[in-house]
Design a protein that fits this description.
It holds the Pfam family NAD_binding_3. It comes from Marinobacter persicus. With 433 residues, this protein is of the alpha/beta class. It is built from 14 helices and 17 strands. The strands form two sheets. Strands 7, 8, 9, 10, 11, 12, 13, 14, 15, 16 and 17 form an eleven-stranded mixed beta sheet that branches. The protein binds L-homoserine. The site of L-homoserine has 11 residues, from helix 7.
Length: 433
Amino acid sequence: MKDVNVGICGLGTVGGGTFNVLTRNAGIIAGRSGCNIRISRVASRRSRDDLALGNIPFSTDVFDVVNDPEVDIVVELIGGYEAAKELVLAAIANGKHVVTANKALIAVHGNEIFEAAEKAGVVVAYEAGVAGGIPVIKAVREGLAANRIDTIAGIINGTGNYILTEMRAGRDFAEVLKEAQDLGYAEADPTFDVEGIDAAHKLTILAASGFGVPLQFEKGFTEGISTLTPYDIAHAELLGYRVKHLGIARRREDGIELRVHPTLVPKSHLIAQVDGVLNAVMVDGDAVGQTMYYGPGAGDEATASAVIADIVDVARSVAAESNQRVPYLGFSPDAIEDLSVLSMEDIQSAYYLRIQALDRPGVLAKIASILSEHGINIESIMQKESEFKDGRIPVIILTHTVQERQMNLAIEEMESLSDIADKVIRIRAENFN
Ligand code: HSE
């Protein structure tokens, strides 16, 4: 059996998991690859005494891996943008294939990296960057290759979902975040999780791979979960909805919607049932219909599972000396459509609104009239006498789908009424029918 040499850069959570699974399951992985996947070199800023590195050469300089002529596949698990980009471009320039779990790198620099890889005739594989252990990139690029995909939506940050799940049980935000960090789920900078940046990286990659459009991270919309209140989470529940932090990508004739924000989802929808660090991605294909991919979105060995699946893919073609490979984004470069990300004013969504109304006659009529003037249809409305306080009473409204531009205008008008105190709270809602 032929040897294919792998060099691992980075021995953090995912690097350690990759080392352990590759070592523990070497036999089964060789059986599947048809070659012997050998860890021939490892580099990391810090060594790890808990890993059985044995005689495998170890160094603190990741460029020792990139410059080692023996290494066929460089596994980039150092994270971050610039250092990782330099490492990956150097590996490509040295004719090495790359496997990475770095969604930030692919979302932000992917177009440039894929172009360099295409010229050099090497593979850059990134399954582990999206939804941890769930093989959703493989599903979108290969399993659903027959379909025109118009919607991809899901829970694609485990830390955020873990926090929202625990908050529903009444726990404190900061305490739960600390727990997620201790479990190794959170990003080095946890604001990436909490403010939706990590999810936006993953959504950018999913949209590009599913729709056949360029990676456009900088044009997406991102809103985090740090300002969500237990009050709105509980009232969404009363209306039959659960608040989830979703990434939503929609392909339309005039462009694509690319947005990450808290979203009300009907409690009966599968996405609403996904709790804890688990992720779920829904992909709607014109032939297959609605499909869902569910599983652990973070964690050492769960993410290693996806890293190693990519290593196996690349190793098979290295062993077979074949140039047959799936295009980077699942579409040939000349078939990538130049479809831009739409502005948020142009997206279509339903809305949950919380309006702090002064308890006077006619206020509800004024609110209803403003909504109606902007073509906004009310699905349900809730006002509880028991919540009356300091002359104010919250009015909670769920609307049908409308263009965000109309909702912005309606909110502006409502906020200008003397009967309305404070800003109107708005959370977008989706039914995914
Ligand atoms: N911080 C990420 C998450 C890790 O919580 O989902 C996996 O990408």
